[in-house]
Amino acid sequence: MSPNPKIIVALDFPSATAALDLAETLDPEKCRLKVGKELFTRAGPQLVEALQKRGFDVFLDLKFHDIPNTTSAAVAAAADLGVWMVNVHASGGEKMMLACRERLESFGADRPLLIAVTVLTSMGAEDLAGIGVQDSPEAQVSRLATLTRNCGLDGVVCSAQEAPELKTELGSDFRLITPGIRPLSADKGDQQRIMTPRDALMAGSDYLVIGRPITRADDPLAALEAVHEELVGL
Ligand SMILES: O=C(O)c1cc(=O)[nH]c(=O)n1[C@@H]1O[C@H](COP(=O)(O)O)[C@@H](O)[C@H]1O
User: Fold this and answer.
1) Is residue 2 part of a domain?
2) Degrees (nearest 5) of the Cα angle 224, 166, 208?
3) What was the pLDDT predicted at 1?
């Protein structure tokens, strides 16, 4: 039993019923839950509250990216909901991230963790070139993660492939949240920069975001248990 579960199950479902059905089978002491754009758009704050009432920490993954005034107000709305963690896109820039961090100060110690997405784990070098970024994914992640840390945020979303370098550059307190996690037997799907759960933690990830390998498994609970077994001793 871990008081600080490192696995965040991505509830990428089209309805509150589907999300709650899975949540009923899970243990809040063994995983946290992520509510993203599809589920939140369909089920809204009530679903987040329902999950929190069942004892789960919720990562509200809406990846806010807008002007500073709008984004900081959205982050404050997430804090009012009582979520454990909320995220913005680091590419929204310094002023946007500073405004968000400052807005959360009024929530004191109960504020959510505020993290920023660097380069989506579905993107590789060619995708970056397509949006005018000639640097490698690693260099762009490092640039955006450093900016995020300098703005006083709590951590970044990145690929576990970038974790060792970021831990060295940015320090052990700066949290690394890593999607693109694939047990060896799982399909890669649309993810490009992937790693197994065990390798990701050994590389320096603080939290593993895992969606389809658990939620689309024939037996999601067994799939989650299998990941826990893979992590024994870490
Ligand atoms: O912010 C995220 O959580 C996120 C960032 C990123 O770069 N890549 C990424 O896959 N995610 C999310 O992590 C989850 C990964 O799900 P699976 O690919 O099904 O394991 C999805 O809910 C994505 O929205």
Assistant:
1) no
2) 10
3) 41
Residue 3 confidence (pLDDT):
61
How many structural domains comprise the chain? 1
Is 220 inside any structural domain? yes
Ligand 1 binding pocket includes 87 (Cβ within 6 Å): yes
| pLDDT tens-place string over residues 47-96 | 999 999 999 999 999 999 999 999 999 999 999 999 999 999 999 999 99
Q: Find the 216 Cα to ligand 1 centroid distance in Å.
A: 14
Q: Give the distance from CA 176 to its chain's centroid.
A: 9
Active-site annotation, residues:
61, 63, 66
ipTM of the complex as predicted: 0.98
Q: Please check whether residue 144 lies inside any domain of the structure.
A: yes
Interatomic CA distance for residues 98 and 16, integer angstroms: 33
Q: Indicate the burial class of 63 (C-beta count within 10 angstroms; 0-12, 13-18, 19 or more).
A: middle
Instruction: Tell whether 183 is in a known binding site.
Output: no
Token output for 233 = 């001793």
Which CATH number characterizes residue 58's domain? Answer: 3.20.20.70
- The model's pLDDT over 181-205, given as tens digits with 9 standing for 90+, comes to 999 888 999 999 999 999 999 999 9
**Interatomic CA distance for residues 84 and 72, integer angstroms:** 16
* Least confident interval from 7-21, 52-66, 140-154, 183-197: 183-197
For the Cβ of 127 lying below 6 angstroms from any atom of ligand 1, the answer is no
Domain that includes residue 44, residue range: 7-230
